């Protein structure tokens, strides 16, 4: 087994420590100066913390950024990206000095904010403040769950910490409250956060707007809280981190006092240091004040680089030690080890699809949320990595997994999550879980409250993460709860997020197929949009197979007697309306093709030839959906058809009455269709 000298205690060579720290400070200043844009002040302030973390505490191997048991590190205040990039370069992740010189340039590996997938060692995309905190909580959740599931006496194969750094902005944003309250309740003991208490935001002093006692806030959440009075006190930092690691029954927060723009004679401690280059003159003055002897930009002293790069030997030894542990586990627990491998690779178990249930006439009319619950429970038995829950709406969202245990404080093997009424936190935590790997998270709420988690949804899409949203109560069809609960613009708003896949199934059969897509889709989030009200059974011996869901849209039924006069399209609960309209039109001699379009995004990914097959050019189209019509205009222009949708809010009443009053009826469809067909 490889060994490496333990990391030297900070302070053992103060001059070398300072040189290593000032290397980060000067790289940050120089990169921002070169780009003439960016945030120098916070990396300059936090350099000592990053130094102590990366050279002594974070177990990471720059040679293998994806080593499964590595500690996770999240820089939630992503604007301080040069702090992370400097550390990744200095510890030897393969990021080069040239990359730092390309900071914020087109296709560089050093984008303005850390972006997952662009830079080796970047664990998540951060920038929207607060999200990284939630992601870190999610990573700690995944670690706790996998450890409880896979570790056996004497074989701790899943055993790592999650560290994060957050700023004033992160803590002001509500999502950090949701996520940290969750972490405190669930006693995630291997989560260690640092709050950069620099009292400065963009507008100026935090005195303008923020007087929370952050330490007491975290104590109230149930976290273990420490204070470090000066970030430059490396010994104090080191002691606090050691203590945080010793505390395993609660998450830890270390409040660290820092000075933004540390070292800059004219900018330190001011908002000016936050988000703009210091200017050449001030850079020179700052280097002088820091005792930096070199004037040329991007200078990296050899002895500093050599010291930072020891992270590689240490990391190699740590990874080798873990591999040895894994081999022992493999010998003692061969089946579990194979299962862990499979899950970490993100591969689904062989034959899992056989578990997807089929629905028939005997199932009768079922709400798609109920069908979803049945499908989820059936496949969850075969797909143990499927874990999740709801933001306090489990009985409504049908997200509960029967007999599969509850994720609870200190008891993390359970697969049912109670996220609490924290939609935003849930979304952000789910992202962290997915990024960690080994689990496929799902989370439910009412479709209307997708708005409450939208920033996290967007980041799941930006990062192509495999997360599944279970959104029920999908339209005015929810009835009596009224306009505050009835989604109108949410479908269009979700559909326009790049990399997002929205599926709104029309019956139980389509719901089963929607879950098949959701579980196999590895390239971004999937939202299942489901009804509260019952949906009729679509007899697939008369209508086309629900397998068409995979193509996003398919011909459910065609009119007899040749080319259709009109195509009727819909999704979800309104497919029943086009089916009834189709029959009425047939009786009146109008040939209507019926198209079920559960997913515009899946349909958009089909070849043009298939799209033309389903929606023949030159034939008028009529769509109906109990939602804002905007997303349908991609498929239907004013010249070739009409969209019946809702451009007003709903109402509180039994749902049949609302459909009637808002004009979403079979008769209205028939009349429109006749008009379009010229009959
Ligand atoms: C959700 C969100 N809102 C606004 C911003 C724009 N923004 C970037 S940094 C920042 C605040 C800076 O203050 P702080 O978090 O204390 O960071 P520091 O000045 O210490 O670097 C703001 C408002 C953002 N990145 N994310």
Measured distance between first and last alpha carbons: 82 Å
Task: Compute the CA-based radius of gyration.
Answer: 28 Å
What characterizes the major β-sheet?
Answer: 6 strands, parallel
Count the beta strands: 18
Query: What ligands does this structure carry?
Result: thiamine diphosphate
What's the overall average pLDDT, rounded? 97
The strands making up the biggest β-sheet line up spatially as: 8-7-9-10-12-11
Number of helices: 23
Net shape: elongated
Low-confidence stretches: none
Strand content: 5-15%
Care to describe what's here?
Helix content is 40%, strand content 12%. It has 679 residues and is of the alpha/beta class. The strands form four sheets. Strands 8-7-9-10-12-11 form a six-stranded parallel sheet, sandwiched between helices. It has a five-stranded parallel sheet with strand order 1-2-3-5-4, sandwiched between helices. Helix 5 (131-150) runs parallel beside helix 7 (174-185), helix 5 crosses helix 15 and helix 11 (302-332) packs across helix 12 (334-345). The relative contact order is 0.09. The mean pLDDT is 97. The structure holds thiamine diphosphate (TPP). Thiamine diphosphate is lined by residues 42, 77, 79-80, 127-129, 167-169, 173, 196, 198, 200-202, 260, 274.
């Amino acid at each position: 087994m490889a060994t490496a000298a333990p990391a030297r205690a900070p302070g053992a060579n103060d001059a070398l420590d300072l040189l290593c720290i000032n290397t980060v400070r000067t790289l940050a200043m120089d990169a921002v100066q070169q780009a003439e844009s960016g945030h120098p002040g916070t990396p300059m302030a936090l350099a000592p913390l990053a130094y102590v973390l990366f050279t002594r505490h974070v177990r990471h191997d720059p040679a293998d950024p994806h080593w499964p048991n590595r500690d996770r590190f999240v820089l939630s205040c992503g604007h301080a990206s040069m702090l992370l990039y400097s550390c990744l370069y200095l510890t030897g992740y393969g990021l080069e000095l040239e990359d730092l010189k390309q900071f914020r340039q087109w296709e560089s590996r050093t984008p303005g904010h850390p972006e997952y997938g662009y830079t080796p060692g970047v664990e998540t995309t951060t920038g929207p403040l607060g999200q990284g905190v939630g992601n870190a909580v999610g990573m700690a959740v995944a670690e706790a769950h996998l450890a409880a599931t896979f570790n056996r006496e004497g074989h701790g194969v899943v055993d790592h910490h999650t560290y994060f750094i957050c700023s004033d902005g992160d803590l002001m944003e509500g999502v950090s409250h949701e996520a940290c309250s969750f972490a405190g309740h669930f006693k995630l003991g291997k989560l260690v956060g640092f709050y950069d208490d620099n009292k400065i935001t963009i507008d100026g002093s935090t005195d303008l707007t923020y007087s929370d006692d952050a330490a007491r806030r975290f104590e109230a959440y149930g976290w273990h809280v420490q204070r470090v009075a000066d970030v430059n006190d490396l010994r104090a930092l080191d002691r606090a981190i050691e203590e945080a690691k010793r505390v395993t029954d609660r998450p830890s927060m270390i409040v660290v006092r820092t000075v933004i723009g540390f070292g800059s004679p004219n900018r330190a401690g001011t908002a000016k240091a936050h988000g703009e280059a210091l200017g050449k003159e001030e850079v020179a003055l700052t280097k002088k004040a820091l005792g930096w002897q070199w004037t040329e930009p991007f200078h990296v002293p050899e002895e500093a680089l050599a010291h930072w790069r020891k992270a590689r030997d240490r990391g190699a030894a740590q990874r080798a030690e873990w591999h040895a542990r894994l081999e022992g586990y493999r010998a003692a627990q061969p089946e579990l080890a194979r299962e862990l491998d499979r899950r970490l690779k993100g591969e689904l178990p062989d034959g899992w699809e056989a578990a997807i249930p089929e629905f028939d006439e005997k199932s009768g009319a079922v709400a798609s949320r109920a069908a979803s619950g049945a499908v989820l429970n059936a496949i969850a038995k075969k797909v143990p990595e499927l874990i999740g829950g709801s933001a306090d709406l489990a009985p409504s969202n049908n997200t509960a997994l029967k007999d599969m245990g509850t994720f609870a404080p200190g008891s993390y093997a359970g697969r049912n999550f109670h996220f609490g009424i924290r939609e935003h936190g849930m979304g952000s935590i789910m992202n962290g879980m997915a990024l960690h790997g080994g689990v496929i998270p799902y989370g439910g709420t009412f479709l209307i409250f997708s708005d409450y988690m939208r920033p996290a949804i967007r980041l799941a899409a930006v990062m192509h993460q495999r997360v599944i949203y279970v959104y029920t109560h999908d339209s005015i069809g929810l009835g009596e709860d009224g306009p505050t609960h009835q989604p109108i613009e949410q479908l269009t708003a979700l559909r326009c997020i790049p990399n997002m896949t929205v599926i709104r199934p029309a019956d139980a059969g389509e719901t089963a197929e929607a879950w098949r897509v959701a579980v196999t889709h590895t390239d971004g989030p999937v939202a299942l949009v489901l009804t509260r009200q019952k949906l009729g059974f679509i007899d697939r011996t008369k209508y086309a197979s629900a397998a068409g869901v995979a193509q996003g849209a398919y011909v459910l039924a065609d009119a007899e007697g040749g080319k259709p006069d009109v195509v009727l399209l819909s999704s979800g609960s309104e497919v029943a309306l086009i089916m009834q309209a189709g029959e009425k039109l047939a009786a009146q001699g109008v040939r209507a093709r019926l198209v079920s379009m559960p997913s515009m995004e899946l349909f958009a990914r089909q070849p043009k030839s298939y799209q033309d097959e389903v929606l023949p050019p030159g034939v008028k189209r009529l769509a109906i959906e109990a939602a804002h019509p905007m997303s349908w205009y991609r498929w239907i222009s004013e010249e070739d058809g009409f969209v019946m949708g809702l451009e007003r809010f709903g109402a509180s009443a039994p749902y049949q009455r609302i459909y009637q009053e808002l004009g979403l009826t079979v008769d209205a469809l028939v009349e429109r269709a006749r008009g379009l067909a010229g009959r």
